[in-house]
Amino acid sequence: INLNKGDEYWWNAVLEGEEQIDIDKINKERSMATVDEEEHAVLDRLTFDYHQKLQGKPQSHELKVHEMLKKGWDTEGSPFRGQKFDPSMFNISPGAVQF
Predict the structure, then answer these.
(1) Cα–Cα distance measured from residue 44 to residue 35, given in angstroms and rounded to the nearest whole number
(2) Is residue 12 domain-resident?
(3) Cβ neighbours of residue 40 under 8 Å, at least 6 residues apart?
């Protein structure tokens, strides 16, 4: 018998009428082998951001905004042209960039 879940949630029991499963006794951790590429990328980014924050360094969303600002910083018509790019001039909120 092959049972497929329609949605991802904890079952109370495998079969109707069966004794309920005590989910407090279940290991709820997922193996990294079961994580798809997209979820793995998010976990990698969150880990990177955590370590950057601990070290007082820019997190991924800040680095992304700095990259975009630096790209346009010295372009033709920019009021900042000729000035040194200083990322510390900006306070970038976590919601500034969508990944």
Answers:
(1) 12
(2) no
(3) 32
What is the Cα–Cα distance from 62 to 85, expressed in whole angstroms? 14
Q: Are 39 and 54 in contact (CB under 8 A)?
A: no
Per-residue pLDDT of the chain (99 residues), as tens digits, is: 787 878 878 778 888 888 988 878 888 787 888 888 999 999 999 999 999 999 999 999 999 999 999 999 989 999 999 999 988 888 887 777 766
Q: How many angstroms separate the CA atoms of 68 and 54, rounded? A: 24
Count of domains forming the chain = 1
**Residue whose C-alpha is closest to residue 22's, from 11, 32, 30:** 11
Residues 6+ apart with CB under 8 A from 53: 59
**Domain ranges, residue 54:** 38-75+85-93
Q: Tokens 């029991």 label which residue?
A: 13
Q: Give the separation between CA 63 and CA 57, rounded to whole angstroms.
A: 10
47 three-class SS: helix
